[in-house]
């Protein structure tokens, strides 16, 4: 029995040794203890088995011991043994000798025979083992106790440094640390580590990078949550292992230095400096900043600081730079300054140049930033007081981080069943929240333990938000899960990003940042409000910058692996924790709990995708409860006050939620890096354009919304873009199959089922999309709101709120109108009419006069549509863009019925579209006369249609071939139309290949019922060749430029770089196409692998770089054109927004906008765009020592051979009516 | 399972053939030496490797040689053909309609025709077609030659169907083949060699066809007699006794078909041709690995009782999904998988299928999986029997 008892004793000991609060670590720690017994098992419940195996043995011992008991005088109490603890261990050891004597006595008592001998032997063995055990336990306990303490003292590799440290520790107990530091700083780095720190190539290098990223993120995270001791501990552990030390980088040491500096812990700071030197680094600005900051906080004497500064100067670092190029928060900066002032009392930190004094000097923007002319810009139409209260509202929304919006779905009748379901759901949620908090606490303890073992873990990230907030976030995720589930990877990523956003918002609330923001914003509003005057005339961004210092350093985004790992950990917690009764109907608590979420795999061909899928019963419950609210993140909803002006690549738009100036794939950092590196004035054009686009106030078109909602809550109307409710989904045949149905029949049934399911699923996703949009519209009805904008990597602009904006479908656009009205003026009504005709798509080839005449002709229908949209003749429903047409009909009706249309105040946006905008830019670049004429760059009485032009040209070629006897050409007679070639021509600008073009044409040919289908393949093959030939004929310059761009990109990518350029407006562009970098996140329910194509450490993806460059370059031009137009329109006081190449303004202002648009197009293309590009690329990719390489030389040749241009006179554009129409 | 080749013990046959390569004379002598009846080498004079190019197939179309460099194996050994015919002929009542995939030089075709069978030769390589057609004429017209690739029948991309891929409906209609009900006999036997590339893809495609009764299986329980890679073949026939090879594919095939290994033949007995009918040089093909590998002549006959009340072409994909899901974590316990497969109470199911709680996936025989599936399918009182969703599977193979 005693063996058994010992086992228990050991277990008890194990408990006693544990720090309270992390019982969950037991399972993991059981292993080494078990090892003592020499029996290590890999089974799931090893203790159990051990005990059972020992049983027979133990039974025998029990018998023996019972006989021996009476003989024994002093028996070590079981109880004490069980409760043996660290303090008692030595005592237990010292009780040994008397017991040995005891053995002698026992032998003397005549317990003769084998039994006695055996018993004796047995006991001796056991005692020996016990001794051993105790010794081991003691060691272990000591170890554990040591482990409990975090490492402070560094383990140094360099003997000299270590000796020095020891010496100081032992002999100078006073405050030698300042001396130490100066000594350390003076010492040159031990080893030149520069060379060996080059990352190893290949996958090993990538993995190493991943680990580094994670470690750095961990250290920074610890400092962030004020746990520098933990960061220090992990750093010491990692530093102490020679192999891992190689993975450590200077920023890691700096992160910990920074942490100690903030705390003012000088001793630990010096320890880190020891390690830093030991690793062979020389301190940089950040390290010095930390040291000085720490000294500033501790009020160190001047001489130390002076020596430090001197050393810094010797290292070639400028004192001024401490204040300009190190990002520190205000408090830290004060500490730093106080330290420096001590050494140099006269020092004053360099004032950052006043941003408003710097002006962009680009020739394209000269007019905009011209100081001589007073700047005018559209103001908000609201008074100051109103705007201030709007700001307060938006601020409270963003502080709450989520917005709850009522759904526009028809309310269910509150039957008993519904109420019951809601109650059940409520109960479940309360329980889940508690459970989640509990499990999250345990997870956190686990991660903390991992960190104590010296591994970088998620611990600091789990400290960022409270458990309650995490739980709330998780429950929100659960609520929004679609019935077919979501892939674990994307779920994890979303969760991680949301946590980051919340964390940023929370940090901003901590200091008095919010109050400062409010003060500054109120001041800023004086410029925007309708009833206040500001003396100096400035653009909103300039005004904002003039109002205060540049903002504090922004929160760096977390590396993608950390984001995903964090999200995955939380998703796992969700899967494990959230359970519901197996049968919801049964109310007993005895009912078995089943998980709500399942982790299953989906098989795509040979790939597996892990999916989290909600239990159907849970979905059923949600459907029955039919709760009528939905939750959005604050940044997904339009803003309630004018957005913050963009002043830098990461500050602008929402008040608190972080927003990037340039949206990009998660995990790409090169865009941000480029933007940050370029001089601030270079970005002014883009910043101002985006600020102004965001400053346009919007409101909901209530009448259209009413109509849409009416259709939406009834049966929907897919033809008009109103998705139908699920009840309208096709039903599979209900009847059960007859018993003897043939397999074929069954297969038929299956196909039918699959079809129904597919349709239903598509309907569901459309419906959800519309539900979000309409609910938000309903939420914002009777309100004024703003859509903050940002841009993609080519400079194309987009509104930030995803669900409800002016970029969407016809339906989405029709719901919006300008909040600010403008009288129609003399020609406004005509523009409205033309716009309406444009929306119907009926008179595309007619002149403006003809379109106007047509509108007058159908005025009766227009009025009828406006008055009785759903009951009348429904003329509007036949239009290309029915909802916008309807909204326009209503506007026209109002204007016509107003006494004087010219004074009618209109909120309606009128659009002007570029005709095949990409080709317009190409034609202008190449000065193609024929091409320019066909895309309306040349004045003409009637709008030209490039598609018809190409079709005609193709027909010419076809006839020639047919005469030559080519069979396909003969078959195609009479089938070549505008429609067949349109899509291909449209997309050719955006780099469609022959392959893609053939597929497009094949589709068109299949639609032609009388075309002999057996020729489709051959004919499409033939046609796509002819379309490309025709384009070549018409746009000769275009094709040459396309080819030049593509070839240059290919050669650049071949030299190992991604293609970069700068748009005429100054935005730096880099193509984020690289070979996929695989990131693997192990452990947990599933290993996640994801590839990141934006990783700059990988080689560029040559094909993508090559194919992407021509369209991306053209997009960067059209975005420049849009921004120029926008800025100049604002200068003239117009309201302007855009959907890429579709420009919107008030009806009264269309002529002005048209004029600006043409002027800016001419000015843009008057720049030597291609030569500038060539020069930039040569400088960027063919300079320096690289020139000697063959590849670079070939690239240089290519770059220098800029295509020749044609003879087209660009000035003609100014008089072309149909350029944008 | 090892079925002796009619007359000759298979070991003997193999040793007779191994290493013989394509040198006919040598092989002839070897065969004599091993005392294989001389008539087995009959027809040798009809065939000579040099014959092919000299037949003047003309220039192969330029597009052909450009886009396909894949090479194929062909049966060129008359003795092998003879053996195969003997195996295929089998019982007296068996059907005598053969569909030969990629006959190439037509050695087996000839043997089959001589035996009096009706043969449909689906040849994907145009260069062989004239030769095959002439073969038909010489031997009395019981041969149809179609330019078609059997393994590319009924492409799933719904694009243009251009030769050599065809739809089975068109093919069978042109050939006048009537559909036989599933419960009846075998409508035709398919003979051929599995494509070395995409072997697994083809195996999956065929499985989908069987279970959904589409493509060739619309016409009844078509019997496949195919040469399959030895490794792949072992996988098909694996069960819990050799758990390393056991996988979802094995279960699905064994549930669907009776699998018989008829004969094994070393790689070296097959000739390799590039796409335009050129004999490939032995040097480049005879890498060591290939020589040691064998091809297994395997018969896959769909089971008459494959479809039951609960496993039908309507829900077969759920069965597929169940198996894939199970074999994703193959060492896990069945009960753990049941939780993420079906909302039906896992213990009930275990009880009904008489499995223990500790049963692992790799301990389940194919029939156990089928029973498990059927048990869940017919469980009462659940509105939703599977957590599986069509969305999750994207069957484009």
UniProtKB/TrEMBL annotation, chain A:
Entry's Gene Ontology cellular component terms: mitochondrial DNA-directed RNA polymerase complex; mitochondrial nucleoid
Region named Disordered: 720-747
Cellular localisation: Mitochondrion
Keywords: DNA-directed RNA polymerase, Mitochondrion, Nucleotidyltransferase, Signal, Transcription, Transferase, Transit peptide
PPR repeat placement: 249-283
Uppermost EC category: transferase
Enzyme Commission number(s) of this protein: 2.7.7.6
Pfam families per record: RNA_pol, RPOL_N
Compositionally biased intervals (Pro residues): 723-735
GO MF terms held by the record: 3'-5'-RNA exonuclease activity; DNA-directed RNA polymerase activity; mitochondrial promoter sequence-specific DNA binding
Residue span, DNA-directed RNA polymerase N-terminal domain: 392-695
Quaternary structure (record): Homodimer. Component of the mitochondrial transcription initiation complex, composed at least of TFB2M, TFAM and POLRMT. In this complex TFAM recruits POLRMT to the promoter whereas TFB2M induces structural changes in POLRMT to enable promoter opening and trapping of the DNA non-template strand. Upon metabolic stress, forms a complex composed of FOXO3, SIRT3 and mitochondrial RNA polymerase POLRMT; the complex is recruited to mtDNA in a SIRT3-dependent manner. Also forms a complex composed of FOXO3, SIRT3, TFAM and POLRMT.
Family: Belongs to the phage and mitochondrial RNA polymerase family.
PANTHER family: DNA-DIRECTED RNA POLYMERASE, MITOCHONDRIAL
The protein's name in its UniProt record: DNA-directed RNA polymerase
Organism: Rhinolophus ferrumequinum (Greater horseshoe bat)
TrEMBL record, chain B:
EC number from the UniProt entry: 2.1.1.-
GO biological process, one term: transcription initiation at mitochondrial promoter
Cell compartments where the protein resides: Mitochondrion
Alphabetical list of Pfam families matching this protein: RrnaAD
Keywords: Methyltransferase, Mitochondrion, RNA-binding, rRNA processing, S-adenosyl-L-methionine, Transcription, Transcription regulation, Transferase, Transit peptide
Reactions it catalyzes: adenosine in rRNA + S-adenosyl-L-methionine = N(6)-methyladenosine in rRNA + S-adenosyl-L-homocysteine + H(+)
Domain Ribosomal RNA adenine methylase transferase N-terminal: 80-274
SMART domains reported for this sequence: rADc
GO molecular function: mitochondrial transcription factor activity; RNA binding; rRNA (adenine-N6,N6-)-dimethyltransferase activity
Binding site for S-adenosyl-L-methionine: 73, 75, 123, 149
Domain of life per record: Eukaryota
GO cellular component, as recorded: mitochondrial nucleoid
Family named by the database record: Belongs to the class I-like SAM-binding methyltransferase superfamily. rRNA adenine N(6)-methyltransferase family.
Database matches in PANTHER family: DIMETHYLADENOSINE TRANSFERASE (PTHR11727), DIMETHYLADENOSINE TRANSFERASE 2, MITOCHONDRIAL (PTHR11727:SF13)
Record note on quaternary structure: Homodimer. Component of the mitochondrial transcription initiation complex, composed at least of TFB2M, TFAM and POLRMT. In this complex TFAM recruits POLRMT to the promoter whereas TFB2M induces structural changes in POLRMT to enable promoter opening and trapping of the DNA non-template strand. Interacts with mitochondrial RNA polymerase POLRMT. Interacts with TFAM.
Protein name (Swiss-Prot/TrEMBL): rRNA adenine N(6)-methyltransferase
Species of the source: Rhinolophus ferrumequinum
């Amino acid at each position: 029995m005693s063996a058994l008892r010992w086992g228990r004793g050991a277990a008890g000991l194990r408990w006693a040794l544990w720090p309270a609060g992390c019982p969950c670590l037991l399972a993991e720690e059981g292993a080494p203890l078990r090892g003592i017994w020499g029996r290590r098992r890999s089974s799931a419940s090893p203790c159990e088995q051990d005990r059972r195996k020992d049983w027979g043995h133990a039974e025998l011992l029990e018998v023996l011991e019972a006989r021996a008991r009476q003989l024994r005088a002093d028996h070590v109490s079981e109880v004490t043994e069980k409760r043996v603890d660290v303090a008692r261990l030595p005592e237990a050891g010292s009780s040994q000798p008397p017991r040995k004597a005891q053995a002698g006595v026992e032998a003397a008592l005549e317990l003769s025979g084998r039994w006695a001998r055996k018993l004796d032997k047995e006991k001796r063995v056991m005692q020996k083992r016990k001794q051993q055990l105790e010794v081991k336990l003691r060691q272990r306990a000591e170890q554990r106790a040591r482990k409990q303490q975090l490492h402070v003292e560094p383990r140094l590799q360099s003997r000299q440094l270590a000796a020095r440290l020891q010496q100081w520790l032992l002999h100078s107990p006073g405050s030698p640390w300042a001396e130490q530091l100066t000594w350390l700083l003076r010492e040159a780095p031990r080893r030149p580590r520069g060379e060996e720190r080059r990352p190893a190539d290949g996958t090993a290098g990538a993995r190493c990078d991943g680990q580094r990223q994670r470690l750095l993120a961990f250290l920074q995270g610890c400092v962030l949550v004020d746990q520098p001791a933990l960061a220090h501990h992990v750093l010491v552990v990692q530093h102490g292992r020679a192999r891992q030390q190689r993975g450590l980088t200077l920023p890691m040491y700096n992160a910990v230095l920074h942490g100690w500096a903030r705390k003012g812990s000088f001793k630990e700071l010096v320890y880190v400096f020891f390690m830093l030197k030991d690793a062979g680094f020389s301190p940089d600005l950040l390290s010095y900043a930390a040291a000085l900051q720490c000294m500033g906080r501790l009020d160190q004497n001047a001489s130390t600081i002076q020596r430090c500064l001197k050393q810094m100067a010797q290292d070639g670092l400028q004192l001024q730079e401490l204040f300009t190029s190190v990002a520190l928060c205000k408090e830290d900066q004060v500490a730093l300054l106080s330290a420096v002032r001590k050494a140099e009392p006269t020092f004053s930190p360099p004032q950052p140049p006043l941003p408003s004094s710097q002006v962009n000097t680009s020739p394209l923007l000269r007019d905009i930033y011209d100081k001589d002319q007073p700047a005018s810009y559209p103001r908000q139409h609201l008074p100051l007081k109103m705007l201030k209260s709007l700001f307060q509202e938006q601020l409270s929304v963003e502080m709450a981080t989520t917005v709850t919006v009522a759904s526009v779905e028809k309310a269910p009748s509150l039957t008993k069943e519904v109420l019951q379901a809601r109650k059940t759901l409520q109960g479940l949620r309360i329980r889940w929240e508690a459970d989640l908090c509990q499990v999250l606490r345990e997870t956190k303890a686990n991660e903390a333990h991992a960190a104590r073992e010296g591994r970088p873990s998620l611990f600091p990230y789990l400290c960022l938000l409270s458990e309650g907030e995490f739980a709330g976030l998780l429950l929100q995720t659960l609520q929004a899960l679609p019935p077919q589930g979501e892939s674990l990877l994307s779920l994890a990523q979303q969760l991680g990003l949301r946590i980051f956003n919340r964390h940023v918002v929370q940090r901003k609330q901590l200091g008095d940042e919010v109050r400062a923001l409010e003060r500054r914003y109120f001041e800023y509003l004086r410029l925007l409000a309708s009833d206040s005057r500001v003396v100096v005339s400035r653009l909103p961004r300039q005004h904002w910058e003039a109002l205060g210092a540049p903002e504090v350093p922004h929160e760096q985004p977390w590396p993608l692996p950390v984001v995903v790992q964090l999200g995955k950990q939380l998703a796992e917690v969700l899967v494990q924790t959230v359970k519901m009764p197996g049968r919801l109907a049964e109310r007993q608590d005895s009912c078995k709990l089943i998980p709500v979420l399942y982790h299953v795999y989906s098989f795509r061909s040979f790939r597996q995708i892990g999916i989290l899928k909600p239990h159907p019963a849970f979905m059923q419950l949600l459907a029955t409860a039919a709760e009528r609210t939905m939750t959005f993140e604050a940044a997904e909803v339009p803003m309630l006050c004018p957005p913050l002006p963009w002043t830098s690549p990461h500050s602008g738009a929402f008040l608190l939620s972080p927003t990037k100036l340039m949206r990009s794939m998660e995990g790409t950092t090169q865009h941000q890096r480029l933007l940050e590196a370029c001089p601030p004035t270079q970005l002014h054009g883009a910043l101002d354009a985006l600020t102004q686009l965001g400053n346009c106030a919007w409101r909901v078109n209530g009448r259209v919304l009413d109509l849409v909602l009416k259709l939406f809550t009834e049966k929907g109307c897919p033809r008009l873009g109103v998705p139908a409710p699920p009840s309208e989904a096709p039903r599979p045949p209900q009847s059960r199959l007859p018993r003897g149905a043939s397999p074929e029949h069954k297969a038929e049934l299956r196909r039918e089922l699959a079809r129904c399911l597919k349709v239903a699923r598509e309907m569901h996703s459309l419906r959800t999309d519309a539900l979000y949009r309409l609910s938000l519209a309903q939420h914002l009805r009777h309100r004024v709101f703003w859509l903050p904008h940002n841009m993609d990597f080519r400079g194309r602009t987009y509104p930030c709120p995803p669900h409800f904006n002016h970029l969407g479908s016809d339906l989405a656009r029709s719901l919006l109108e300008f909040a600010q009205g403008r009288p129609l003026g003399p020609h406004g009504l005509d523009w409205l009419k033309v716009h309406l005709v444009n929306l119907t798509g009926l008179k595309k080839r007619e002149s403006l006069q003809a379109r106007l005449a047509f509108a007058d002709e159908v005025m009766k229908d227009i009025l009828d549509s406006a008055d009785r949209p759903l009951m009348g003749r429904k003329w509007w429903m036949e239009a290309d863009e029915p909802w916008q047409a309807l909204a326009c009909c209503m506007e026209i009706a109002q204007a016509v019925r107003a006494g004087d249309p010219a004074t009618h105040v209109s909120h309606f946006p009128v659009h002007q579209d570029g005709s095949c905008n990409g080709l317009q830019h190409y034609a202008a670049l190449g000065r193609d006369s024929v091409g320019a004429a066909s895309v309306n760059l040349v004045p003409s009485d009637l709008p030209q249609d490039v598609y018809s032009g190409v079709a005609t040209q193709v027909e010419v070629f076809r006839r020639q071939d047919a005469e030559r006897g080519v069979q396909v050409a003969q078959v195609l007679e009479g089938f070549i139309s505008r429609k067949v070639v349109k899509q291909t021509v449209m997309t050719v600008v955006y780099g469609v290949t022959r392959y893609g073009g053939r597929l497009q044409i094949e589709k068109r040919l299949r639609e032609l019922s009388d075309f002999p289908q057996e020729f489709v393949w051959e004919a499409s093959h033939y046609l796509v060749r002819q379309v490309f030939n025709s384009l070549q004929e018409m746009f000769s310059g275009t094709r040459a430029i396309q080819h030049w761009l593509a070839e240059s990109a290919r050669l650049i990518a071949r030299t190992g770089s991604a293609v970069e350029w700068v748009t005429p407006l100054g935005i730096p562009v880099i193509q984020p196409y690289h070979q996929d970098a695989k990131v693997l996140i192990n452990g947990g329910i599933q290993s996640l692998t994801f590839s990141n194509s934006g990783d700059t450490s990988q080689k560029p993806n040559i094909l993508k770089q090559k194919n992407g460059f021509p369209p991306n370059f053209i997009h960067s031009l059209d975005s420049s054109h849009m921004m120029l137009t926008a800025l100049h329109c604002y200068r003239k006081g117009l309201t302007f927004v855009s959907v890429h190449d579709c420009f919107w303004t008030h009806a009264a202002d269309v002529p002005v906008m048209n004029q600006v648009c043409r002027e800016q197009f001419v000015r843009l293309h008057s720049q030597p765009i291609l030569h500038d590009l060539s020069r930039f690329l040569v400088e960027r990719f063919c300079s320096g020592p690289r020139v000697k390489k063959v590849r670079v030389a070939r690239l240089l040749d290519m770059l220098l051979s800029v295509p020749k241009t044609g003879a087209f006179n660009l000035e003609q554009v100014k008089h072309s009516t149909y350029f944008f129409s | 399972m090892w079925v002796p080749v009619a007359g000759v013990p298979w070991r003997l046959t193999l040793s007779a053939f191994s290493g013989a390569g394509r040198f006919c004379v040598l092989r002839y002598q070897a065969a004599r030496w091993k005392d294989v009846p001389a008539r087995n080498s009959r027809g040798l004079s009809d065939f000579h490797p040099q014959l092919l190019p000299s037949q003047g197939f003309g220039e192969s179309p330029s597009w052909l040689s450009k886009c396909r460099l894949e090479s194929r194996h062909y049966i060129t050994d008359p003795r092998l053909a003879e053996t195969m015919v003997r195996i295929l002929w089998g019982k007296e009542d068996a059907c005598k309609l053969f569909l030969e995939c990629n006959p190439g030089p037509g050695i087996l075709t000839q043997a089959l025709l001589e035996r009096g069978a009706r043969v449909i030769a689906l040849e994907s390589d145009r260069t062989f077609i004239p030769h095959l057609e002439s073969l038909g004429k010489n031997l009395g017209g019981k041969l149809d030659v179609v330019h078609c690739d059997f393994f590319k029948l009924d492409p799933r991309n719904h694009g243009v169907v251009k030769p050599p891929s065809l739809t089975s409906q068109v093919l069978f209609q042109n050939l006048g083949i009537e559909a036989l009900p599933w419960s009846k006999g075998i409508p035709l036997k398919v003979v051929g060699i599995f494509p070395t590339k995409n072997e697994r893809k083809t195996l999956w495609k065929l499985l989908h066809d069987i279970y959904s009764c589409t493509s060739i299986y619309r016409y009844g329980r078509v019997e496949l007699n195919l040469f399959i890679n030895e490794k792949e073949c072992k996988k098909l026939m694996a069960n819990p006794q050799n758990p390393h090879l056991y996988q979802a594919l094995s279960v699905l095939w064994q549930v669907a078909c009776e699998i018989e290994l008829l004969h094994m033949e070393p790689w070296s007995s097959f000739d390799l041709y590039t796409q335009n009918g050129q004999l490939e040089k032995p040097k480049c093909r005879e890498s060591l690995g290939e020589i040691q590998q064998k091809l297994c002549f395997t018969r896959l006959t769909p089971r008459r009782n494959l479809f039951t009340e609960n496993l039908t072409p309507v829900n077969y994909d759920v069965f597929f999904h169940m198996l894939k899901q199970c074999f994703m974590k193959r060492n896990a316990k069945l009960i753990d998988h049941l939780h993420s497969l079906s909302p039906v109470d896992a213990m009930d199911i275990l009880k009904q299928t008489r499995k223990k709680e500790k049963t692992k996936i790799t301990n389940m025989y194919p029939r156990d999986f089928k029973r498990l599936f059927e048990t869940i399918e017919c469980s009462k009182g659940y509105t939703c029997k599977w957590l599986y969703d069509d969305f999750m599977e994207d069957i484009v193979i």
